Queue: 2 jobs
Job 1
Amino acid sequence: MAKDFEDVLARIAAAGARDFPQVRLDGDTMRRLLGARELPEGLDGERAAEVYLACACADGDSTAIGVLEERYLPRVQASLARGRSPALVEEALQQLLATVFVPRPGQDPEIADYTGAGPLGAWLRIVALRIMMRLEKKQKRAGELGSAVHAIPAPENPELDYLRRKYSVALQDALMEAWKQISSENQVLLRLRYNDNRSVDDIAEVENIHRATAARRVRKAEETLVGEARRILSERLGAPESDVNSMMQLIRSQLVISAGRIFRDGGGNREPR
């Protein structure tokens, strides 16, 4: 084992013993759990202690699991609870615990994937939000994405109105397929922004990042979705470049109005990673 890795393990062990003295984790177990992981450079302090706690949880230590539930789950629950039914939130939390603590076939539990790249609380909230997205989709399965596309107000530009009518089905399919292709991280950001009507400030709080960083990530997620839809339309339609560009203008111009319905009814069933 490389000396640098051993130094990192020593920092993790020291930070864990300092912040979570009630939790016991031996060096061999920690080495096994982290040996194949790419740990952040300079991992130390609070993040290192949280890696220690996550490893102990992955090892099935009941004390560590109890500490994590007591310290982090209340904020996860609060982030899920805004505008949602208590029963749905409770189900999401139960699935969260099963997802992160139960060993996967032939693998350690998902909590072992946490490497300290960001706060443990934010990592748990992301996993919980993905679970919530799947639960909400099941509740709303009766809705059709087509109603969202047709709910887009007709543009004043006659050319765009013509294209919307001509390519409405193709546009619907492209948006649905684009949603499936973008990353889970981008799905979470777009669902927070449009389906949950969260402000950039709210998203920054949920993700535990600066407001400017949250704004950049939301814009990038929007551009990723639109760009993927454009690629799909170009490949499937063989339409003139000018038509595809105009359809992208349509998507962009109505994104704020229609995105919430499109994302809610058309996507969100990716598995957490």
Note: DSSP finds 14 helices and no strands in the chain.
Job 2
Amino acid sequence: MNLELLLHFLKFDIQTSSLQFDDWIARLYCSNDLTDRFPAKFKSLKLFVESQDSPQRIPISSPEQGVFAETNLCNARCYYEAGRFFSSNHGDYWHEMDYNLHTNAIRANLGGRFLQSGQAIISNLIRPILQSFILPFYGLRTLHGAVLCKKGRTIFLHGPGGMGKTTTAVQLLKAGYDLLSDDGPFFFIDGGSAKVLSSLDYIHVTENTLRLFPQLRTLVVGNRDNREKFAVRISDLKNNGAWKEPHRITHYIQLQRRPDVAFPRLRKINRNTSHRTLLDESMVIFRRAQFHHSADPFGSYSQFVFDLLGKVIQGAEPYELEFADHHLSEVPFLVDQL
């Protein structure tokens, strides 16, 4: 099975002989082609993946003198040696995996719960890969947040897990906003500014979000994932073609979901504080001596991420939104006043 996702200007090739999950790719991901618009950014990333108990199992060895990379690959501790990152997990989501900088290829063998459902491969392999440290090598970076746009304004909702990013995004969607991503939008640098692109995947809703928006329940695809969240196809929620275009973030909103808040409040906050929050959460620095070889792009990698985060905040007005769930219907009015 050969699959191809066109992630705007990154071609993600997926090849397997022993696993079947193409139907789940079709349900939960879509492609968007911006290669003519950004030809200089076009690159290709390959994934070779097989079942660990199949004859096609890929020979993957752990590094003999690997150093901890201070990051993770597929939600497992990651080690590096001589241009190759390696991770493994021998628990429920059994895997062994490596990523080779010089061949632009990820290789993986899967077992355990990965073999029970194609959905598990999407939720616990494909998506973590696309949200891991890998994409900045290709000029893209995912950030933890939701992005919506309306009438030339692009809103970046940011905050730790449980702050209501998806819930708030769905409320704004109901009010006429276009949803680019509820978690993990792609960012890149275009000229002197940061631009955001759709994550091209599904949205992730909790049981509480389904209670607040029962109309979403009929759009749920599959079962709960390992985070106890349901998948809803983003293609069922698109208002128009805004998700196909790059956008500049105009407003950054830090969410503070607090059940004790008497009334919702949107207030301007310090830009430097917002920048530090993004840096603390999203900056990856390869510190060990093994990463300082001139032939490998680790220095330019960290510089790219640092510059990108600065440009995201530099081009946006920063705010903080305090609210409780029973204030959700008031949120679109507040955001429209910005």
Note: The two ends are 48 Å apart (CA to CA).
